[in-house]
Structure formats: structure tokens, C-alpha cells
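Subject: Sanity check before I submit

Could someone independently write out the C-alpha cells for this chain? I want to compare against mine line by line before I put it in a report. The sequence has 179 residues.
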Amino acid sequence: MFDINSSNKWKYLPNILTILRLLVIPVMAYLMILGKWVPGLIVFLLAGLTDILDGYIARKFNVISNFGKLADPLADKLLQLTALLLLARGGRLPRYFFYILCAKELAMIIGSLFFLQKDVVVYSNWVGKTASAILFSGIVLSFLNMLVSVYLLWIGVVVSFTAGVNYLIKFLKKINENG
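---
Independent answer below. Compare away.
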């Protein structure tokens, strides 16, 4: 009998969605290079939807995998950074946003590796998720060439920085608790 709550039926779907997200990045990039902003935006939005969907499925059906833990954030960052780079190249937002967010992502990767080395797991929280949503919204508005996107991206940068400080504080507390 078909049991919709059976995790076996959902086991690979989050990873398939993540791989799909990685595969559509070149499609989005190609469309953006051609100046086809609306089709590029549609691909970006659909890829963003797969991110929400794969996370929901993985948590709801408890099918979180080591592959997903690594590939999902990588796919998200590649999607966003590719969009930012090509939006800047197309004159839809200042280039410094690409550089600032690249530096932020590099700092997050280095921080994550340091956390991993210390066997400390710091889970995402509402501040980080809020920062991601604001940045995503700013990127969407940049596709539409709306000036308000710059302000939204600045807010996203500030909230991202706040999230980074928040993660650092949690990390230091965990290190202190472990001695």
C-alpha cells in the first residue's frame, strides 16, 4: 500500500532537486549573457523554488543526507553568485555587491571549515534565513532592473553580517562549553 509518509519514497528527491538546481545554473547564465532577463529570472525563481522544496522534503520526511548537507548550500551559493556576477556585468546592479557577497561566502566557508575542525555544529537560524530571503528578493528585483534592489541588497548585506556575528557568538559559546 502507498504510504505518503514513508521516507523511502522521498529518499532521493531532495538530492535530485539539488542536482537539478546545479544543472540549471548554466542555462540561467546563458540567458542572462544573451540579455534575456525575464527568462533568466524565471529560471532563477524556479531554482529558488527547488531550494525551498528540497529543504522541506528533507526535513519533513527525515531524508537528510551528507551529500545534501554539502551540495545544497553549494548550489544555493553558486546560483546566487552567478546571478549577481551577470547582473553586475549587465549593468543591473553595482559590481561591488558581487565582490562583497563573494567575500561573505568565502568567510562563511572558512568559518564552516573551522567549526568542522572543532567538531562544532552551528545550525542556521532565523537571522541567516532572513538574510538569504532579503538577498534573494534583491536579486529578483535586480533582474527587473528596479532601483530599489540596491537598497534591498544593502539590507541583505547588513543582515548577513549580523547573522555571521551571531554564528560566531554561538560557536564561541559552544567552544567555551566544551572546554
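---
OP: Matches mine. For the report I'm noting this point. The mean pLDDT is 90.
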